[in-house]
């Protein structure tokens, strides 16, 4: 799956600071530095992107632009505010394409499954003639090898469906399909009355975390000491009898060191000691719930919930090596009050 929201965020980051380099440099960063999108790929009318430090007002500017273009937007990644030294790169796009005449709802097959689909219903006296006019056949080599376009309400955008053999990469597969556009001429570009059309409905909501970009120090005078705590993208997409639509959001965020946490969740030591004394008059090493009021098991977190990478106790943090309860200190013998 590729969506341009993350590339938009990176592009704005690169425009602000130049090519982004990390220590060590992941291959994904090199690929993003080499990528160019621009208005040719994503129309600024249905996208928002920006990058900068919190003190520059980047979040406020992004939120203002986002809600001016998309009043009903519900961003999940864009924070309300960030510290002045936080670095944020953000990308958002939303585009909905509708078919003037809805296709018929059908039952289709995909591999060995029956699936809900859309296409023509085979009724010559119904809406099929109008539906066929919304289909452009760019190339057809065999029943399992063709490239078609579904014409939507925006003449500036295309909905392409290509049943083709996959290449080694998604980029190569896309290039191969685009290279087959407009191969046919005349009547061959149109669906004949006896030619069937059945396409599976699609609906997805995917989130991807680009962990190879997280936690690595950035290189550069302005970026010294900065590392991304999060780098992620969420893509929502649908294709059905009424049209196609995509909404995507991406963020790269560096928020500085996490706040200190004093939530005792692991074995710990309790001491009672007179001020100035060299030893406590009570010491207890607690490593089980035997001395606690247990309320029940800890519920699992929601899917995808958790702090950004790098938040938490430093590696190796815990009880000092060899530390344990002093002789005679420990839970009372079984049955003791």
Keywords:
2 domains; three-stranded antiparallel sheet; 15 strands; 30% strand
Describe the 3D structure:
This protein is α+β, with helices and mostly antiparallel strands. It has two domains: 4-97 and 204-254; 99-202, Roll (Alpha-1-antitrypsin, domain 1), CATH 2.30.39. The chain is built from five helices and 15 strands. The strands form five sheets. The protein has a five-stranded antiparallel sheet, sandwiched between helices. A hairpin with a 2-residue loop joins strand 12 (230-240) and strand 13 (243-254). It is elongated and about 100 Å long. Residues 328-337 have a biased composition (Pro residues).
Q: Which segments are poorly predicted (pLDDT under 50) over 5 or more consecutive residues?
A: 307-327
General form: elongated
Q: Taking all residues together, what is the mean pLDDT?
A: 90
Estimated helix fraction = 10-25%
Separation, N- and C-terminal Cα atoms: 62 Å
Structural class: alpha+beta
What is the total domain count?
A: 2
Helix-strand string? HEHEHEEEHEEEHEEEEEEE
Rg measurement, Å: 29 Å
Amount of beta strand: 25-35%
**What is the strand tally?**
15
Main sheet properties: 5 strands, antiparallel
Strand order of the largest sheet: 2-3-13-12-10
DSSP summary: helix tally? 5
Biased composition (Pro residues): 328-337
Biased composition (Gly residues): 307-327
Region (Disordered): 302-337
Gist?
Residues 328-337 have a biased composition (Pro residues). The chain is of the alpha+beta class and 337 residues long.
């Amino acid at each position: 799956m590729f969506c341009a929201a993350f590339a938009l965020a990176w592009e704005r980051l690169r425009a602000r600071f130049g090519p982004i380099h990390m220590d060590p440099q992941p291959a994904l960063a090199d690929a993003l530095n080499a990528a160019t999108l621009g208005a040719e790929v994503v129309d600024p009318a249905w996208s928002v992107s920006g990058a900068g430090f919190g003190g520059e007002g980047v979040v406020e500017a992004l939120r203002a632009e986002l809600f001016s273009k998309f009043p009903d937007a519900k961003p999940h990644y864009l924070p309300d505010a960030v510290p002045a030294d936080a670095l944020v790169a953000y990308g958002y796009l939303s585009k909905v394409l509708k078919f003037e005449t809805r296709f018929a709802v059908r039952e289709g097959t995909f591999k060995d499954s029956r699936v809900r689909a859309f296409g023509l219903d085979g009724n010559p006296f119904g809406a099929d003639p109008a539906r066929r006019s919304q289909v452009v056949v760019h190339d057809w080599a065999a029943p399992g090898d063709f490239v078609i376009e579904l014409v939507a309400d925006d003449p500036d955008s295309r909905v392409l469906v290509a049943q083709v053999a996959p290449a080694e990469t998604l980029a190569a597969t896309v290039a191969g399909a685009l290279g087959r556009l407009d191969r046919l001429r005349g009547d061959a570009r149109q669906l004949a009355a006896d030619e069937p059309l059945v396409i599976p409905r699609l609906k997805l909501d995917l989130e991807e975390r680009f962990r190879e970009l997280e936690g690595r120090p950035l290189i550069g005078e302005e970026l010294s000491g900065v590392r991304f705590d999060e780098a992620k993208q969420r893509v929502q997409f649908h294709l059905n009898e009424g049209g196609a639509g995509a909404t995507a959001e991406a963020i790269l965020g560096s928020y500085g060191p996490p706040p200190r946490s004093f939530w005792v969740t692991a074995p710990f030591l309790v001491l009672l000691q007179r001020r100035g004394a060299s030893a406590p008059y009570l010491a207890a090493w607690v490593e089980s719930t035997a001395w606690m009021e247990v309320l029940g098991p800890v519920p699992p977190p929601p899917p995808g919930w958790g702090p950004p990478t790098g938040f938490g106790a430093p590696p190796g943090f815990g009880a000092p090596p060899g530390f344990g309860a002093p002789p005679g200190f420990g839970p009372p013998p079984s049955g003791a009050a």
